[in-house]
Design a protein that fits this description.
The chain is α/β, with parallel strands linked by helices. It is built from six helices and five strands, in the order βαβαααβαββα. The chain has a five-stranded parallel beta sheet with strand order 2-3-1-4-5. Helix 1 packs across helix 6, helix 2 packs across helix 3 and helix 4 runs parallel beside helix 5. The longest helix is centred in the last third of the chain and has 20 residues. The radius of gyration is 17 Å and the shape is globular. The protein starts with 6 loop residues before the first strand and ends in a 14-residue tail after the last helix. The C terminus is likely disordered.
């Protein structure tokens, strides 16, 4: 693989598992090489328009689990999930991932960061566009957090390179170091065309 080819690092895990924290440290680690894209961005834009709201896609990030009158008593998260379901019903099950892939392919960034990969189909769509060898899925688990109130689930596809990290309470720095170490190891291995790109260490830096 050449340096000009795109590499994608997809984060997968239940709500509040630590995906936003992970993408923040990856943005810092890779700097201008990387750009963050969310599968949910077009969904959020459509949800806001549906409720007559004119705002940025991330305007409700700090209130996403709070019932709000502007969403008819739903939480923003619930409104986004409902909008996603409607979008898929109207445009097909692949509507959200098609929008995401188009955005990624139009980016000039060499490293694509994604904090909300929600299932095999989304991750596989990225792998199909960029090449499975250029995609890493980091699954994040955290005690007490699951997908019971979310439309997403674990990425398990055998065609994808997947590694697991646990975000343990009180160990944030260790968790952040593990995520960065995994991502750097993968990027370096892919760029060096090393077969051991599929064998990554989770040892903290």
């Amino acid at each position: 693989m050449g340096v000009g080819s795109k590499i994608a690092i997809l984060l997968n895990g239940p709500p509040r598992a630590g995906k936003d924290t992970a993408v923040a440290v990856l943005e810092e680690a890779f700097g201008s090489e990387a750009e963050t894209f969310k599968f949910t961005q077009p969904v959020k834009d459509r949800a806001h328009a549906r409720f007559g709201l004119e705002c940025a896609h991330d305007a409700y990030e700090l209130l996403k689990d709070t019932p709000l009158p502007e969403f008819d008593g739903m939480t923003p998260r619930e409104a986004y999930i409902d909008t996603s379901r409607k979008l898929k019903a109207e445009q097909g099950e692949d509507a959200v991932r098609k929008l995401f892939v188009e955005t990624v392919l139009g980016s000039q960034a060499q490293i694509i960061l994604n904090p909300d990969a929600g299932d095999d189909s989304e991750a596989e769509a990225v792998a199909e566009a960029l090449g499975a060898e250029n995609v890493l899925v980091i699954r994040i688990s955290r005690e007490g957090h699951d997908f019971s109130k979310d439309c997403r689930t674990w990425v398990n596809s055998p065609s994808l390179r997947i590694v697991d990290v646990t975000n343990e309470e009180g160990q944030r720095k260790v968790y952040e170091s593990q995520v960065v170490a995994l991502a750097r190891s993968f990027v370096d291995a892919v760029r060096s065309d090393r077969p051991e790109a599929g064998v990554l260490s989770v040892a903290a830096e």
